[in-house]
Specification:
The chain is α+β, with helices and mostly antiparallel strands. Among the domains are: 7-49, no CATH class; 54-151, HIT-like (HIT family, subunit A, 2-Layer Sandwich), CATH 3.30.428. It has helices at 7-17, 21-33, 37-48, 53-58, 104-122, 168-182, 197-201; strands spanning 66-69, 73-77, 87-91, 126-130, 146-151. Strand 1 and strand 2 form a beta hairpin. The radius of gyration is 22 Å and the shape is globular. 16% of the residues are buried. Bound molecules: zinc ion (ZN). Zinc ion binds at residues 52, 54-55, 94, 143.
Length: 209
């Protein structure tokens, strides 16, 4: 436990353990929000005794309609769907981060197939593919997963944000760091684009990402 949590976190946990009733659960829930998925899983096992629901489904111990399964990935319906046909693509390996998964390519191949099926079967106008990597990003289970959410004009799904103004100077600094990490080997060739008048006048409706 000592290597999973920082000294400050251990101190906070110690303080929480001395609180009583509602105050304790309130503070503990606030603490959980700041934890990584691994930490949340550890604490849940320690204090709540709950096991990973996706692993239970994989092992057949928890009932769920498995829509697809191969040696790396399974697909199920989300039990809290945002829209009809909202599915989760889940790696069979218990790992918290999709973006760090060694099976990332295989997972995304299935995501692409599922998204195509959504268009074909549900006849919707759009699909959102959503990964929440980390509790802050909305990840609810410490076993990574990808949402495939069918979208139609009149649905009630909201994925939105307010535009943030980022200083040009900050962007340039960030750009340097990112390029360094991504190791750009070849500059993209930018060809001059002929601007079509109608396109200039074309205005997007309010963006729903
Ligand atoms: Zn799991």
């Amino acid at each position: 436990m000592a290597d999973l949590f920082s000294k400050e976190q251990l101190k906070e946990l110690q303080e929480i353990s001395q609180l009583k009733g509602d105050e304790q659960s309130k503070k503990f829930n606030e603490f959980l929000k700041k934890c990584s998925p691994e930490q949340v899983e550890y604490l849940r096992k320690q204090y709540g005794g709950s096991e990973c629901p996706f692993c239970l489904i994989k092992e057949g111990k928890l009932k769920s309609e498995i829509l697809y399964q191969d040696e790396n990935v399974m697909v199920i319906f989300d039990i809290n769907p945002a829209s009809k046909g909202h599915m989760l693509v889940i790696p069979l390996n218990h790992e918290s981060s999709i973006t760090n998964s060694k099976d990332y390519g295989k997972i995304m191949d299935v995501v692409q197939r599922v998204a195509k099926v959504v268009f074909d079967v549900l006849k919707v106008e759009g699909v959102n593919i959503l990964i929440g990597d980390g509790v802050t990003a909305g990840q609810k289970v410490a076993h990574g997963y990808v949402h495939v959410i069918p979208r139609s004009e009149d649905d009630k799904v909201k994925i939105n944000w307010e535009k943030l103004n980022v200083k040009e100077k900050d962007l340039q600094e960030l750009s340097k760091l990112i390029k360094e990490k991504l190791k750009v080997v070849k500059k993209l060739e930018v060809k001059p684009v002929k601007v079509i008048k109608e396109l200039e006048e074309f205005k997007f409706k309010e963006r729903i990402p």
